[in-house]
Structures are given as structure tokens and as C-alpha cells.
Amino acid sequence: MLPIDEIERRILARSPEHSIEPSLDRIRELTEILGDPQRSYPVIHITGTNGKTSTARMTETLLRARGLRTGLFTSPHLVSMRERICIDGEPVSKARFAEVYAEIEPYLGVVDEHQPVRLSFFEVLTAMAFAAFADAPVDVAVIEVGIGGTWDATNVADGSVAVITPVAIDHTKYLGETVAEIAADKAGIIKPGALAVLGQQPVAAATELLRRAGEVHATVAREGFEFGVLSRELAVGGQLLAIRGLLGEYPDLFLPLFGAHQAGNAACALAAVEAFSGAAGSDGGVLDRDLVAGAFATMSSPGRLEIVRRSPLVVIDAAHNPAGMAVTAAALPESFGAAEVIAVLAVMADKDVAGILDVLEPAAAAVVVTANSSARSMAPARLAELATPVFGADRVHVAARLDEAIDIAVGLADESAPEGFAAGLTAGAASMVLIVGSVITAGDARLLLTGKALPPAPAQDPAASAGSEP
């Protein structure tokens, strides 16, 4: 069997996930050869522009708390490729990752020969996830799209529940220039007869999503109408929520995540699990409130306003477009008080960098521009050129590497004297470091500062979930 480094090299040698050829022909041929493993378990399918991964992880946590064996496919990864394929809350082991690749590798060449374009990096990983979940076997798979929806490789799976988190402008090269066009593409995951759980949407996005739901006779549940957050207040280490689900209310839920956007993601996840449970079982989908509260208390979303160091406080976040940066910026003062923010920013060159900078500027006292480990990362010098007119030269610092940028930012955060080099900072104010701009940036920083990939999933109490399967 091939060593895992060689397997990853072979997968990475294929076209990257940010470069797509819109067709399901390749992945459909591969999954048909494999026996359509994605049809051997029910699927909750999740798309949107921001919040997909957090919502997917929350959904999986709730399902696992109910005693179900779960599969979870997310992208991109923070540190290890294996993070994308989780079973029962844990990334597949190196040995299992190698076994699954060995099982499907003979068929990759067959499909490559038949198709005008070779299978991509993402298509191979998608097929591996489908196969791993079928072999486990899992009771339910939570599948996050890569890009869009209609032409995404994951869309050969038919979700009984489709979740669409808020839609905004991103990936315009492939999805369209407007929110309406992007929503129309993402709406493709809503399948005939499914239940569509819609996070709060711009009017243009909601119009397209509702149109698709009507065309395929899907049932619709909208955040703010059929379900939603009833109340939210800050708590130590997170927030305390009351959520109205599709079939009941769930008070006193402690969510150890920051920001109003995570409360909305949690409401979508809860509605999705209610919908799935009602369709799959005889209990009407109503969830035990104690079980839900216990699951919420264990939820995590690495790389999303995640504290990785204290004194000074260092937070990493995967925001990588203006809409994502806006919710991150809004969450900072609420979650971390009046601390002045020193941002470390590394972004992909093909993103709306000007839009990201415009949103970040009011929230950050200073910015250290740098690069992450991706070949797509914008060069620090170019990023500084764009940042200087927005922030002013005295608030922009440049570092060639992320580790150097973090050192500079920590120095700025520690500096208290007004005559120091922390230009733009208020003397004596508490400061924090925000490392942001990309999932890759968050993953690189997480590895540098903690030496860890994903934390282990909290164990579920078998007694708490006994007899609770839908």
C-alpha cells in the first residue's frame, strides 16, 4: 500500500478544487463504477457562501448525540487532508485513508481515459468520502459542497435535507457576478421532495432558492419564519441561546462559539436535524431538550474565531470574502470587548481583496500583511500596496512569512507605550491579535501556534442517547 505522503502527492497533482470544470459526468461515472456508495445512506447536504463548515459540524454533532453513526465531509481542510472525511466525529486514520484510496485508485484511470477532463483533486476526495461512509457503514452523512451546488461533485448525492447558509458574492468566476446568479447555482442541491432549510438570505438569493424549491416541490423552512434564534446573550466562553426549532423550542443552550452568525448557523443545524429525524423516524422529529443542550455544549468549529493563545489573546478565523469578514468584524467587540485588534492578513490573490480590506479597516488598529502556504496567496508586497491607501502607511506592516507576521503582531499587541512602534494603537489599551484571510491562513496559524490539527470530537454519552435514534 502506498505511503500517505505519496497518496496526497498523487491527489494534489490533479487539478485543484478552486479550478472547476462544470460537469457531473466525471464524478457520476466514478461513483457508478463504485456502486453508487452515496446512495447507501441518507444525506444532509449543505451549501451557502459562509458558515457551511460550522453548520455541517454542528449538524453532525447533534446527529451523533442521538446515537447515530455519522459521516462528515467538509472542505477545505485546516491542516490535514484527512480532516475532510470524518466518521463518528474523528478524521479517518492514515491507514484507513490509504485503504480507501487503494480501493478506488484502479478506477481513476478508467474514468480519466473516458472523460475529456481528468478527475480533479476534489472529485477524488468526494468519491473517497462516499466510499468510506458506505464501508463504515454510517447511518447518515453530512456533506458540505466544495463550490456552488449544481455542478459540485457532491451533488451526485441526493440530500433528503438541503441546508443553504447565507449567500453572498464569492467564486464569481464560476458561479456568477450577482447574488441571484450565485444563489441559483447553489439551489441545485435542493432535490425533488426534499426539505430545504434556508438561513437568512438577501432578497435576491431567497427569490432564487424559493423558485427552485417550488419547481421540485420541496418543503421550505426559513430562518426567521419557521425557525430561528429567539434570544441570545453573551456567556463566558461563548453565548447562551434560545432557539425555536421547526417543532419545538429549545431554551438555555450554551454554545461555546462566538458571534451572532454562529447562533444562526446553530439554528439551521438544529432545524436540519429536526427535519431529518422527522422524515426518518416515528417521533415527529422533536428532539430531547437535554440531549440538544448537551450536544450544543460540545460544539466546536476550529478556525472560526478560535482562541489559540492568551496573553496576548490570539484568535484565528477563516473569513476569506467581504461578507465573511463583515460578520467576523461584527463579532469581535461583542465577543472580546474593547480590545484593540492587530490583524494578521494573508489572502488568496483571486479573492475580492479590496472588499476584504474595506471591511477589516474599521475593526483593526493595525494590520500585518503576509502570505500563507498556498501558491495562490497574494504576495505581501502587493497586499501592502492595496492595504496602505485603506489603512494609512503608519498602520500597515509587512512580513514575508506568516510566523514573522505573528511575531510582529504579538509585539504590537504587547506594546503599551504611546511612543512605541505600535502606530495607530491607543496607549494602555488591551490588544488582541486576529489572524485572518483564508482557511489556509487559519490552518497555517493553528499549526504554528498549537502544533495540532483538529481537536478530538467530544465523546457522546451512550446512556444519554440510548433509544433516541430517529
Using brief descriptors, characterize the structure shown.
single chain, 470 residues, alpha/beta, UDP-N-acetylmuramoyl-L-alanine:D-glutamate ligase, Protein-Tyrosine Phosphatase, Chain A, 8-stranded mixed β-sheet, 6-stranded mixed β-sheet, 16 helices, 17 strands, globular, disordered C terminus
Gist of the model:
The chain is α/β, with parallel strands linked by helices and 470 residues long. The protein is built from 16 helices and 17 strands. It folds into 2 domains: 4-302, UDP-N-acetylmuramoyl-L-alanine:D-glutamate ligase, CATH 3.40.1190.10; 306-450, Mur ligase, C-terminal domain (Protein-Tyrosine Phosphatase, Chain A).
Report on the architecture of this protein.
The protein is of the alpha/beta class and 470 residues long. It has 2 domains: 4-302, UDP-N-acetylmuramoyl-L-alanine:D-glutamate ligase; 306-450, Alpha-Beta Complex (Protein-Tyrosine Phosphatase, Chain A). It has 16 helices and 17 strands. It has helices at 4-12, 25-33, 52-65, 94-114, 121-135, 172-175, 179-186, 203-215, 260-280, 289-297, 322-336, 353-360, 380-391, 402-414, 439-450, 462-465, and strands at residues 43-47, 70-73, 85-87, 90-91, 140-144, 161-164, 195-198, 219-222, 228-235, 238-244, 249-255, 306-309, 313-316, 340-345, 366-369, 396-398, 431-436. An 8-stranded mixed β-sheet has the order 4-3-2-5-1-6-7-8, with helices on both faces. A 6-stranded mixed β-sheet has the order 12-13-17-14-15-16. Strands 9-10-11 form a 3-stranded antiparallel β-sheet. The longest helix has 21 residues, at 94-114. The model is unreliable at 416-429 and 461-470 (pLDDT under 50).
